[in-house]
Specification:
alpha+beta; single chain; 2 helices
């Protein structure tokens, strides 16, 4: 866990002890995309990918079984889609004309 994440967890805990509700979080995946996770009213979470240009607005990513995610499924999904893409393998042969 890096220092930024640790500090954000600490402030959320302190706010919660004072009666505040932390209703969502913003995160950056290793590939550089920005996401918003919002607490759903019926439990679970909703996931939005934030458009870097701000022109389209946030794009919701629904869970397989509806629009709310269970925490473990959400973490697994973000881990799978948020990794930097591997570069394509280099060509060993040259195409012929």
């Amino acid at each position: 866990m890096n220092a930024t994440t640790k500090n954000m967890i600490e402030i959320a805990e302190r706010l919660g002890r004072r009666g505040f509700t932390v209703a969502g979080v913003e995160l950056r995946t290793p590939d550089g995309r920005v996401w918003s996770i919002d607490a759903a009213t019926a439990g679970g979470f909703r996931l939005f990918e934030i458009d870097p240009d701000g022109r389209r607005g946030p794009e919701e990513h629904d869970a397989i079984d509806g629009d709310t995610w269970h925490a473990s499924d959400l973490v697994d999904y973000l881990d799978a889609v948020g990794r930097p893409k591997a570069p394509p393998p280099s060509r060993t042969t040259h195409p012929t004309a």
